Recover the amino acids of this structure.
C-alpha cells in the first residue's frame, strides 16, 4: 500500500465519458491492501467498467462483508454509498437494500472466506432468490486479514505458506451459483483485465443474480509454490472458454468474425455480449453443460474462465414479488397508509 | 352437593386433542358470549405439536371486565381422555364437568365434589353424520350447542356468528348449524338446570374489538408504512408476518397496476432476516422483522452493527419460554436483558412494552417512527399471551393528519444548498446525526457505512478520541430517546401508600384486577405500568416516591428490576421482585398473594390456593 495522498487535480486531457466524468471520478480512497494484491486490480476493473458504461457513480450501492476483499469498496466509486457490513452477511444486507430501492445498481463485494465459509448460506439464498446485483468474490483461497489460514475454496492438496497441506475438498462457488439458479455466472482472473472488465460490464447490464468468481492471488500469504491460487499457477492453468466484447445498445458492432466463432447474448437492456469462442464445444446458454464443462476441466487441474452461463431473459426478486416499478423508499403515507376510514371498517370486522 | 352458582363471572376450560378442529368451535363459544355484551378473555394453551397432543382453551367470562387469567376452573369440557385426571383435578369444588358419555366410565373416574354432566356426543354424531372427519369436527360444534343451552347463550347469536364465518360456504354452514342445534336440543330436553353458571345479556363490551396481538402488530406495521418485512418462522411470532401478508394483500395492492407496495421475504434464517431489514433501513425503506428469543440471539451481531452504524430497524419480539421446543409454546417476559443490551460492545436499545393488541398496533406504528427518528433498532416486546390470544381491546385508532416521521434525512436540495454533511456529527445537540439515503446526490452526501471505526464525517479512524466522542454521542441520543418513547402510566391506590408496584406488558390486566382487590382489602399499592425503555423521569419519580416498590414480572431473574437498578441507580433493597415464570400467564390471585402478604399493617386475607391455580 502507499501513504501518498492521491492528487485531487485532474490532468485536463483526461478523457471523459458521456456523463463528463473522467476515470478518476470513479476512484475511491487510497487502497490499504498490500502492494501487488489482486484485489486492487479488481477494483481497477470495476472503475474501468463503470466509467466505460457511463454509470452515474452515486447511483451505485456497494456492499461488502468482512475481510480484505470487503475493505475494497472504500477504494473505488467514492461518490457511491458503501456498506461494510457483517462477516458473511453482505447478501442479506444487499437484498434488503435492493428491496428498498430497485433503481440503484447493487454491487456486492465479498471474499472466499466471507462467501464460502461463514456466509455460504447467505450466498446460496441470494443466488436462488435472483436478487438483481453483481456479486463479485475476490477469491484467493486464504484468510488474509487474519494472516494466512486456508479458506473453504482452497484446493485439496494445496500448500499453505507455512507448509501445511489442505486436506478438505474445495467449495466451488461457480458450480454452486450455477446449481442454485444464478442467471449470469463467470469466472475470471484479477491478472486478466481484458477479460474481467467486459465480464463486469456484462454483469452490471444483467438483470438478476450475476456472480463473478475472480481468482485474486494473495501476495502476502498465497503466492508461493504449492499454492493453486498464485499468479504463476493461475497463469499456467487458465483455460478461458471465450473472449468477451461488451457492446452497449447504442454501440455499433464493427468487428467481423467468421460465422461459428461468435456467440451473441443480448440482455434485457439491449446491450450485447459478443463472445469469441475459444473452446469450440462450449455453450454459455446451457446451464447443465456449463456445469459439466467446468467440472470436467477442473478435474484435469485447469481453471475454466470466461462467461460460463448467461440467461438474458432472467427475472429478479422484484419481478417475483410484484413490487412497484419505482423505488419503494419513496412511497409516502398516501401510498402506504390505508387511512382512518378503512381502520374503522377493520375495527367493525373485529367485533 | 355444593354447586357453584355464578352469573357472568366464571371460567370455562376446554380440554381437547390438538388438530381435532376444536379451536374454531371454542372461539365460537367465546365470541358468542362477547356478542351478548359480556367480556371474555380466552387463552390458548397448546403444545409443540400439530396433531395428537393435548391442547386447552380457557375462557374467563367476567362482566366486571377483568381480562387477566383468573386461575381455577368452574366448568371443564373434557374432550381429551389423555388428560382426564389432571383436568379433573383443576375443577373448583362445586364446579362442573361436561364429558362425552358415549362410553360409560367407572364412578371412581369422577370426583365426589364435582357436578357431572354427561352428553353422548360421539353417539349423537355417529348417528347424524357418516363422514369420519365430519363426525370429529361437528362434535365440537355440538358441545357448543349443549353449552349454549346450559349457560343461556342466545342461539340466534351463535347462528349469526356461524353465518359470518361460513359466508358463501353453504356446504359448511348447514352441517355446522345442524350440529349446533342438535346439541342445543339435547341439552334442553335432557339437562334442565344442570349448570349453575349463566350468561346474562349486558352492555360491558362497548366498542372494543376482539383481536390477537400479532395481527394487531402486523396491522400497525401496515399503517406505519413498513414496506419490507423479512422473517423466519418461529413460534409464537410467525403469525405476525402471516398477518402482515394477509393485510397487505388487501390494503397495499395498487388497484390499477396490481403492483404490491410491499415486499415480504421469508429468509433462510434470522441472521438473514435482520440483515435484510438493516439493508432496507439503510436504504430508506421502513422495514421490520418478527421473531422470538432464539431469533434475537441469532440477530445480535447485526443488532450491534445497526446500533453503531445507526440504521433504523424494527424487531417485533413475541416472547416465550426458553430454547428448543415445548416451553416455547408457553408465555414469558424473559427477553428483556437480551434485547435491551443485545450485541457486542457497549450497546443499549429502545424497547416498547405493549399491554394488549391496541398497543401492539399503536406501538408497532410508533416503533417505525422512532426507528427513523433515532436511527437505531427498536424492539416491540410482545409475548405469547398477548400475541397469540384474542383479547378485548380498545379499537385501533389512526389520525389521517398524521405524517410519518422519517427523521433527519438530508435531501439533494439540502446538500445542493451547501449544508455541511457529516454522517455522525451531532449538529442539533440531541445526539442524532443527519443521514443520507444512497443515490441522493452525484457528488455530495455519499459515505461509507461501517461499525465503530470512524470519525464524525464517517472517515476511517481508529483514533481513541474519535471512538469516545462517537459513543458518548450515542449516549446523548439514548437520552433523547427517553423523551420520545411512550411514558409510563401511574395508577394511584385509593389511599396514599408507601408501597408501589411496577409492571409491564401482558401483566397489565392481572395487575389492574389485583390493584382493585388490594384496595378493597385496604392493602393499598400504587402501580406504574412501564411502557418503554429507556425509562422516563416518571419512573425515577415513582420509585423515589415509595419506600418499597414491587417489580412484577413474568421471568425468573427479575430482568426489569435489574435494568431499573442498572439504569437508575436505585438501591436494590427497595425493589422487591414478584416473579411468575411457570409458562402460564400471571394471575391477579398470584399478585394479591405475593404483594398482599408483604404489605405490612394491611388487612389482607392470604389466599391459600395453589399459586398457579
Amino acid at each position: 500500500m502507499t501513504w501518498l495522498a492521491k492528487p485531487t487535480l485532474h490532468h485536463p486531457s483526461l478523457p471523459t465519458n458521456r456523463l463528463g466524468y473522467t476515470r478518476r471520478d470513479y476512484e475511491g480512497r487510497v487502497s490499504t491492501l498490500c502492494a501487488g494484491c489482486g484485489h486492487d486490480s479488481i477494483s481497477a476493473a470495476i472503475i474501468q467498467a463503470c466509467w466505460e458504461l457511463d454509470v452515474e457513480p452515486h447511483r451505485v450501492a456497494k456492499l461488502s462483508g468482512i475481510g480484505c476483499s470487503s475493505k475494497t469498496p472504500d477504494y473505488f466509486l467514492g461518490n457511491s454509498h458503501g456498506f461494510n457490513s457483517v462477516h458473511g452477511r453482505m447478501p442479506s444486507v444487499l437484498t434488503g437494500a435492493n428491496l428498498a430501492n430497485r433503481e440503484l445498481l447493487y454491487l456486492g463485494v465479498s471474499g472466499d472466506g466471507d462467501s464460502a465459509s461463514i456466509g455460504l448460506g447467505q450466498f446460496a439464498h441470494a443466488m436462488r432468490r435472483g436478487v438483481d446485483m453483481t456479486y463479485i468474490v475476490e477469491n484467493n483461497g486464504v484468510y488474509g486479514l487474519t494472516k494466512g489460514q486456508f479458506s473453504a475454496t482452497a484446493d485439496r492438496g494445496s500448500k499453505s505458506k507455512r507448509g501445511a497441506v489442505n486436506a478438505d475438498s474445495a467449495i466451488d462457488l461457480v458450480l454452486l451459483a450455477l446449481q442454485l439458479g444464478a442467471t449470469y455466472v463467470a469466472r475470471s482472473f484479477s491478472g486478466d483485465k481484458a477479460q474481467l472488465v467486459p465480464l463486469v460490464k456484462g454483469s452490471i447490464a444483467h438483470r438478476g443474480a450475476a456472480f463473478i468468481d475472480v481468482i485474486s492471488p494473495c501476495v502476502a500469504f498465497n503466492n508461493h509454490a504449492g499454492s493453486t491460487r498464485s499468479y504463476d499457477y493461475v497463469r499456467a492453468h487458465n483455460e478461458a472458454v471465450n473472449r468477451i466484447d461488451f457492446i452497449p445498445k447504442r454501440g455499433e458492432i464493427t468487428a467481423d468474425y467468421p460465422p461459428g466463432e461468435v456467440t451473441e447474448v443480448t440482455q434485457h437492456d439491449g446491450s450485447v455480449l459478443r463472445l469469441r469462442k475459444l473452446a469450440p464445444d462450449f455453450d454459455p446458454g446451457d446451464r447443465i453443460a456449463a456445469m459439466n464443462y467446468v467440472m470436467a476441466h477442473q478435474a484435469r487441474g485447469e481453471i475454466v474462465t470466461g462467461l460460463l452461463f448467461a440467461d438474458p431473459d432472467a427475472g429478479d426478486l422484484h419481478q417475483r414479488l410484484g413490487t412497484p416499478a419505482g423505488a419503494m423508499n419513496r412511497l409516502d403515507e398516501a401510498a402506504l397508509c390505508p387511512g382512518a376510514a378503512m381502520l374503522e371498517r377493520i375495527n367493525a370486522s373485529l367485533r | 352437593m355444593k354447586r357453584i352458582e355464578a352469573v357472568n363471572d366464571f371460567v370455562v376450560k376446554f380440554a381437547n386433542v390438538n388438530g381435532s378442529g376444536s379451536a374454531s368451535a371454542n372461539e365460537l363459544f367465546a365470541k358468542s358470549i362477547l356478542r351478548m355484551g359480556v367480556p371474555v378473555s380466552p387463552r390458548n394453551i397448546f403444545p409443540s405439536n400439530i396433531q395428537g397432543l393435548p391442547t386447552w382453551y380457557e375462557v374467563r367470562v367476567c362482566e366486571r371486565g377483568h381480562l387477566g387469567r383468573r386461575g381455577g376452573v368452574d366448568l371443564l369440557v373434557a374432550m381429551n381422555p389423555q388428560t382426564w385426571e389432571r383436568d379433573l383435578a383443576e375443577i373448583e369444588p362445586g364446579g362442573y364437568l361436561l364429558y362425552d358419555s358415549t362410553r360409560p366410565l367407572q364412578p371412581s373416574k369422577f370426583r365426589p365434589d364435582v357436578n357431572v354432566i354427561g352428553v353422548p356426543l360421539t353417539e349423537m354424531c355417529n348417528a347424524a353424520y357418516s363422514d369420519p372427519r365430519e363426525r370429529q369436527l361437528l362434535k365440537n360444534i355440538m358441545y357448543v350447542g349443549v353449552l349454549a343451552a346450559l349457560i343461556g347463550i342466545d342461539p340466534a347469536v351463535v347462528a349469526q356468528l356461524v353465518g359470518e364465518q361460513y359466508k358463501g360456504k353453504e356446504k359448511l354452514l348447514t352441517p355446522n348449524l345442524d350440529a349446533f342445534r342438535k346439541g342445543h336440543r339435547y341439552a334442553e330436553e335432557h339437562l334442565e338446570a344442570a349448570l349453575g353458571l349463566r350468561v346474562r345479556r349486558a352492555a360491558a363490551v362497548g366498542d372494543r374489538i376482539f383481536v390477537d396481538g400479532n395481527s394487531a402488530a402486523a396491522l400497525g406495521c401496515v399503517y406505519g408504512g413498513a414496506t419490507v418485512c423479512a422473517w423466519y418462522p418461529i413460534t409464537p411470532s410467525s403469525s405476525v408476518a402471516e398477518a402482515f401478508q394477509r393485510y397487505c394483500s388487501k390494503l397495499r395492492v395498487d388497484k390499477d397496476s396490481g403492483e404490491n407496495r410491499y415486499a415480504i421475504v421469508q429468509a433462510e434464517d434470522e441472521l438473514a432476516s435482520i440483515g435484510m431489514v438493516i439493508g432496507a433501513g439503510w436504504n430508506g425503506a421502513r422495514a421490520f422483522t418478527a421473531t422470538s428469543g432464539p431469533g434475537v440471539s441469532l440477530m445480535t451481531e447485526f443488532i450491534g452493527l445497526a446500533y453503531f452504524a445507526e440504521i433504523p430497524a424494527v424487531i417485533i419480539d413475541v416472547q416465550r419460554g426458553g430454547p428448543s421446543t415445548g416451553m416455547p409454546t408457553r408465555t414469558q417476559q424473559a427477553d428483556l436483558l437480551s434485547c435491551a443490551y443485545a450485541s457486542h460492545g457497549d450497546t443499549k436499545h429502545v424497547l416498547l412494552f405493549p399491554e394488549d393488541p391496541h398497543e401492539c398496533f399503536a406501538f408497532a406504528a410508533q416503533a417505525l417512527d422512532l426507528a427513523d427518528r433515532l436511527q437505531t433498532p427498536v424492539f416491540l416486546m410482545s409475548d405469547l399471551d398477548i400475541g397469540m390470544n384474542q383479547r378485548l381491546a380498545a379499537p385501533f385508532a389512526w389520525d389521517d393528519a398524521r405524517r410519518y416521521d422519517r427523521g433527519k434525512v438530508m435531501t439533494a436540495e439540502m446538500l445542493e444548498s451547501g449544508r455541511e454533511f457529516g454522517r455522525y456529527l451531532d449538529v442539533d445537540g440531541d445526539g442524532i446525526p443527519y443521514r443520507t439515503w444512497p443515490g441522493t446526490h452525484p457528488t455530495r452526501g455519499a459515505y461509507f457505512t461501517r461499525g465503530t471505526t470512524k470519525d464524525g464525517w464517517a472517515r476511517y479512524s481508529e483514533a481513541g478520541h474519535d471512538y469516545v466522542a462517537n459513543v458518548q454521542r450515542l449516549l446523548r441520543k439514548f437520552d433523547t430517546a427517553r423523551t420520545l418513547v411512550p411514558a409510563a402510566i401511574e395508577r394511584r391506590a385509593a389511599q396514599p401508600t408507601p408501597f408501589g408496584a411496577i409492571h409491564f406488558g401482558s401483566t397489565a390486566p392481572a395487575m389492574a384486577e389485583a390493584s382493585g382487590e388490594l384496595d378493597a382489602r385496604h392493602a393499598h399499592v400504587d402501580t406504574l405500568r412501564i411502557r418503554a425503555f429507556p425509562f422516563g423521569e416518571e419512573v425515577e419519580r415513582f420509585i423515589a416516591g415509595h419506600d418499597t416498590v414491587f417489580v412484577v414480572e413474568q421471568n425468573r431473574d427479575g430482568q426489569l428490576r435489574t435494568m431499573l437498578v442498572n439504569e437508575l441507580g436505585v438501591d436494590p433493597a427497595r425493589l422487591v421482585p414478584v416473579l411468575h415464570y411457570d409458562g402460564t400467564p400471571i394471575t391477579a390471585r398470584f399478585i394479591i398473594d405475593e404483594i398482599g402478604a408483604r404489605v405490612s399493617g394491611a388487612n389482607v386475607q392470604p389466599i391459600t390456593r395453589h399459586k398457579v391455580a
